[in-house]
Each structure stands twice: as C-alpha cells, then as structure tokens.
Specification:
529 residues; alpha/beta; 17 helices; 18 strands
C-alpha cells in the first residue's frame, strides 16, 4: 500500500491554529489514518474494476473502463456484451413466437422483427450488434425472400454463421420452383451452424385446382443438403397445412443427426411405417393430423421406431392407438400431452374420449400431464399416480365464473387434503405457443404474486393456477372487485347530495330535449369510432 504522507503545509496550518502539542499530534495521527483509509478504498476499487474488466473481451476493456470510472460516454461506447443483454431484455425469446405466416401480419413474431429493425437503425454500432438477433431465426414467406437471402449470403458470407433456425413457409409456382429450391439448397449448404429447421407444405404444394392440392416430388438434392446438417441439427419440424394428400418429409435425411433431440411430424407420416432409430431424440410431437379415420396399417405406425431417450411425447386426441404407443414408449416418458388439433376428437368420437384417464398408468415415471378439456370436473376422473406432480388443462378463456369455480374447487380439495397435483388452466388462445407449459413452468407458490410477461402485441400472466392473456383480467375481473365496485356505487347512491327531495327550482340539469340531443350526439360519436 502506498505510504500516506503528511506535508509541511498540514503541520503549519495546525500550528497557526494555536493548538497544544498533544492536540496537534492527535490531529496529525487522525489525518494520517484518514488518508490511509482513502488509499485502501482506492486500492480495493481498482482490484474490483480489474476483476470486472477481466470478464470482458479484450476489444471492449478500454470502453468498459471509462464507463466503470463514470466518465462521459455514448451508447455506442457500450461493450457489445452489455448491448446484447439489453437487446435480450427488449426482444422476447423465439420460443414464444410463432413464425408461420398463416397466423397473420400482426402477430408477435412480426412485431418482434419490427423491434429488432428499430434497434438496428439506432447507429452503425447498434446495427452490427443487432445482426445476431436479426438472423438467428429466418422465416421464408415468399419465394422472393429465398432468392434475396441467398443473394445476401453470396455478398456477405459472414452472415451464414449467425443463422440458427430456418422456417420454410413460402408457396412457389411451377415456373420458379426450381430456382427457389436451388437457392434454398445453397442457403442450407452455407449455414453450417444451423440448429433448427422447419417446413410446411407450402413449398411443395400448388393449388392448381380449388378441389385438390397437387404435391410436387421431393428434390433429391434438397435431401442431401439436409443430410449434410446432421452434425449440428438439433430440432426438425414439419407442419402440414391441411388437405389430402399432404407432404411427408423423408426422415432418412435427419436420422443420421446425432444431436437431434426434437422431432415434429404428422402422425400419418409415411416413414412411421419404416424402421427408424433416433438415439438422441428426447421429444416427439405427432399431434397434427388431418386424416380421420385411417387405414388398416394405422395400428402399425411407429411400431419399428427405436427412441431410447424419449422423455416428452405430444399426441393427438382423435386416434385409437394411444395405448399401443404408450406401451412402446411410456416407460421413459416424463412429459405427456394430448392435443386436440382442430377439435377433431369431438367429431370423431360419439362418446367422451379421455385417453389421459385410461393410459397414464403406462407411464410409470410421468411427472407432467397436459390435455384439453371443457370442464374441470374431469379432474375427479384422473386416477392416482405415484410420480405425477403437475396437471395442465388447455381451457377456453379461463376467466370469470370459470376461474372462480376452479379456484374454489382447488381450495376445497386443499382443505380436505385431497389435492394430489398442482393443477393449472392454460388459455387456449395461446396454444400457438406450443412450448407454453414448459416455458411457463408449474410449481409457482400459491402465495406468489402473478408475473406479467409483455412481448410485442401480447401480454401473458403467469400465476400458480394458470397461464392466460392479461386482458382477461380486464374483460372478466374477479368477483370480489365487482362486489367492491357495486358497494361503492350503492354508497354513492345513498348520498344526500343526490336525494330526490331536493328543490326543483334549484335543479340545473339539462331538459328532456337537451338530454335526447346529448344521447344522439354520443351515439354518433360512438358510431364514428
């Protein structure tokens, strides 16, 4: 530690004050101790700053040191790591956003893209810092976008390493289809760090007749390009858009992917009848379906699949082979979800169909069960399970009296020590967020306040009893708040100020004709909104 020196000026100043020698010595000792403390504080601050700078990249240390020392600087001087932290706080995670074009032009995904573009326009430095967020997920909605992005990669090849997910959802006519597929192959070949790939039927289908959908043959070169991604591909999704027949992706091109952990395909996929082994697969989603009823080979689908690490299974409701599938894969399942795609179960089964009641015993280590229902009384039908902890129910608008009845039922069960699981209601209007039960995990303490998650164009409330759109609290306020409002109105009505016994001569209200004119003006104003 540097020595704390006392200059002659300090001594002369104390002597001029005429203090005794003992007091002078005490002042000198106190002054020296104070300076020693100041030097020690400076030393500790320097060590703390050095530790902080050691965690920052070499190119940003000088800029960061100026900010740490509270020197004046602009936002362009912020370290790129700090800018990325700010951007992640501003931009919602991609798992909450649905990039499929059929959802509409005002979806949260579109608005999130607009937010990213706004950040990129702030300055040159912010533009370069925003590039990883702009290109981490690329969605092709029009053939021109495929050609434009391929041209961008040819001009700026460094962008290739930023792409993590590609969604192909663009219809292409016969005249330009070969060009679009060629550019798509080039894009997949260049994006060597790709982690996720999603396809819809759009690229491989053309409506040449209003009564049918004609499917193109699947390009062999595109299959080879996908197979080349086996080193990095973690997630693959193939979403049918409806119609019969529908496009089926050759699973053989992704089966060599040693890191593939998530697969989403149609349950009627042709490859489900073949022998397939996916050693690393942990999640299988076969919930989308359009063909009901099915042929005689339906019971044999997925019978020759080997999925030793499967943990999460999402199945459709309107099928009759849930039992066989769970007998085959249920031993390792910890998350099981039944999705009623397009509400087909109600049209297919004449009687109530509840596979989540009949087959959960086939999953001995099941922890999280998710299904869709219209009545919470179905909880009384669920059998006991040794490991089941969380039950989520997709429900239409969990608000108003539905919410009150559900909470009251849970309170009664809890007081009777009969509440065996942590039960939540999930808003069905949010079912486009397919990972919602896991993105908003259960297990929130009952006494914890609701958390609000605001993303562009959407606000989601997460509580111990459910996950729902925040505007439901405004449309359907709790009954206790309604009772308070009614009591306030009744108390104001009983105020003597508004008594009917007031003097008519002192009444300054509008006349009947004036009241009618005011009402007409209000109606006209409302009609113009």
């Amino acid at each position: 530690m540097p020595e704390a020196e006392i200059s002659d000026q300090h001594v002369f100043a104390l002597l001029e004050e005429g203090q005794p020698l003992s007091d002078l010595l005490k002042e000198l000792i106190g002054l020296r101790n104070w300076k020693e403390q100041q030097l020690e504080a400076q030393r500790l601050e320097a060590l703390r700053m050095e530790r902080m700078l050691s965690r920052i990249c070499v190119n940003c240390k000088e800029t960061a040191s100026r900010w740490i020392r509270h020197q004046v600087g602009t936002t362009d001087d912020l370290p790129v790591e700090l800018l990325h932290t700010i951007f992640r706080y501003t931009i919602p995670p991609n798992a909450l956003l649905d990039p499929i074009a059929t959802r509409g032009s005002c979806t949260p995904w579109i608005q999130a893209i607009a937010a990213k573009m706004t950040l990129a326009r702030v300055s040159r430095r912010w533009h370069s810092a925003t590039l990883p967020f702009l290109y981490e997920e690329v969605s092709f909605r029009h053939p021109t976008q495929v050609r434009s992005f391929a041209s961008t990669l040819r001009t700026h090849p460094n962008i290739c390493r930023l792409v993590r997910k590609i969604v192909v959802d663009c219809p292409a006519t016969k005249e330009i289809r070969d060009l679009v597929v060629g550019d798509l192959i080039y894009i997949l070949t260049q994006c060597t760090e790709l982690r996720a790939l999603a396809f819809t039927d759009s690229l491989f289908a053309m409506e040449d007749d209003l009564r049918r959908v004609a499917l193109y043959a699947f390009p062999t070169a595109l299959t080879a390009a996908i197979r080349a991604l086996s080193r990095t591909l973690v997630r693959f999704e193939q979403w049918p858009q409806g119609g019969t027949p529908h496009f089926t992706w050759p699973i053989a091109c992704v089966s060599p992917a040693s890191l593939l952990t998530t697969l989403t395909i149609n349950i009627d996929h042709d490859e489900s009848l073949k022998s397939v082994e996916l050693a690393a697969l942990e999640e299988l989603d076969i919930s989308c379906q359009y063909v009901v009823p099915r042929g005689s080979d339906h019971s044999q689908r997925f019978a020759n699949w080997r999925l030793p690490r499967l943990k999460r299974l999402i199945m459709p409701m309107a099928i009759d082979n849930q039992g066989r599938l769970l007998q085959q894969f249920g031993r390792s399942i910890t998350y099981l979800e039944f999705r009623d795609h397009l509400d087909m179960a109600t049209r297919w089964h004449k009687t109530p169909w509840r596979p989540y009641v009949d087959y959960i015993h086939l999953c001995p280590i099941l922890q999280h069960l998710v299904f869709q229902e219209y009545d919470t009384s179905v909880l009384d039908l669920l059998p006991s399970h040794p490991t089941l902890t969380y039950v989520d129910i997709w429900f239409n608008s969990p608000a108003g009296h539905i919410r009150q009845d559900f909470l009251e039922r849970c309170r009664q069960r809890r007081s009777a020590s009969d509440l065996r699981w942590n039960v939540r209601l999930l808003d069905r209007s949010l079912n486009a967020i397919r990972q919602l039960p896991e993105l908003f995990p259960p297990g929130v303490p009952e006494e914890e306040l609701p958390s609000i998650h605001a993303i562009p164009g959407l606000s989601i409330t997460h509580t111990a009893w459910g996950v729902y759109r925040s505007d439901l609290d405004i449309l359907y306020p709790p009954e206790d708040s309604l009772e308070e409002a009614v009591s306030e109105n009744s108390s104001s009505d009983s105020d003597s100020t508004y008594s009917s016994e007031s003097d008519p001569s002192e009444d300054d209200s509008v006349t009947e004709s004036e009241g009618e004119m005011l009402e007409e003006d209000e109606i006209a104003a409302l009609a113009s909104i």
